[in-house]
Amino acid sequence: MPVADGAVAPQHSLDGLLQQCHGQAQMLTGVVYPCSVAALTGAIEAARAGLIVPVLFGPEAEIRKLGAGADLDLSRIRIVPAAGAEEAARLAAAMAGSGELHALMKGSLDTEVLLHAVMQKEANLRTGRLLSHCALLSVPSYRRRIVLSDAALNIAPDTDQKRDICQNAIGFARALGIALPKVAILAAVETVNTRMPATLDGAILAKMAERREIVGGVVDGPLDLDAAVDPEAARTKHITSAVGGAADVLIAPNIEAGNMIYKDLVFMAQAQAAGLVVGAKVPVILTSRADTAAIRLFSAAAAVLYAAALARDPTILHPETAE
């Protein structure tokens, strides 16, 4: 629900992620091709915060030169030499697949190069689940953290892919402390319209959850955005739903909608954000060139908590469904 008079809700600040990481072991993290000051600094700051132990993959001379120019001490940090971005991604993915690393972090290479390496059979990181991006958002004017998926990876997912996106998001939300996530499958309207595929997907996914083909959360759709997040809007529209007005997770109909929601909240509503790619055996910290230092830090904290949750309960990634 909205916060009155523009007040903030500090209990939902993502600074709490950093506090939740206290007591967790620093996570061995492969930082893939950190050949920009922003990428290298993000990794070092996450290490200084006690979140990760970075292992850098890329051209050693270039990385050391960048570090010296940015006054970053790399003397105690392992660097695995790689001639280019593709080799760096391949080496890092192989080490993660063998258990030598517990997470991967994108440096300054293209996302496609990193995820291509993750998806190669020889990397041993595939789980049979679609990879998807989950963002955790804390908006100053809203009294609930929101998980948004997929704003960065899957362009126009079909119904089966949305099922995986939904299940991944439920696992992500549970790992970060939402015991029973309420999931809204978004569309432009809250009623089924056969000319609007997103509404059909919403109805189908809700029925799949009812029959335990999606588990671990409460799923409903289609819901338009206001009915998903605002109780008054849901009441006004006479929507009877356990999710309406109380959604913890928003599943976007496509990447355009998801990306616009994400950027609107971050750049125009001052939302804090953290984002991971999930669905592989290890979390992938996927940062953008436009991401702030805080987003990079919160994303590393989310990866630590997600990996710890997976270690405690592997069913977060592979729950038992009705299949």
Question: What can you see in these coordinates?
Answer:
- The chain contains eleven helices and eleven strands.
- The protein has two domains: 14-127 and 280-323, Rossmann fold (3-Layer(aba) Sandwich); 130-275, Isopropylmalate Dehydrogenase, CATH 3.40.718.10.
- The longest helix has 20 residues, at 293-312.
- The chain has helices at residues 15-20, 37-48, 60-69, 85-97, 111-119, 159-175, 197-210, 225-229, 231-236, 255-268, 293-312, and strands spanning 27-32, 52-58, 78-81, 103-106, 132-138, 146-149, 182-186, 218-223, 249-251, 272-278, 284-285.
- With 323 residues, it is of the alpha/beta class.
- The protein has an eleven-stranded mixed beta sheet, with helices on both faces.
Task: Classify the fold: give the CATH topology of the largest domain.
Answer: Rossmann fold
Following the backbone from N to C, one meets helices and strands in this order, namely: HEHEHEHEHEEHEHEHHEHEEH
Question: In CATH, what is the class of the largest domain?
Answer: Alpha Beta
Instruction: Report the count of strand segments.
Output: 11
Shape annotation: globular
Quote the beta fraction: 15-25%
In the predicted model, the low-confidence regions spanning at least 5 consecutive residues are: 1-8
The CATH architecture classification of the largest domain is 3-Layer(aba) Sandwich
Provide the residue-averaged pLDDT. Answer: 92
| Strand arrangement, major sheet | 3-2-1-4-11-10-5-6-9-7-8
Oligomer: single chain
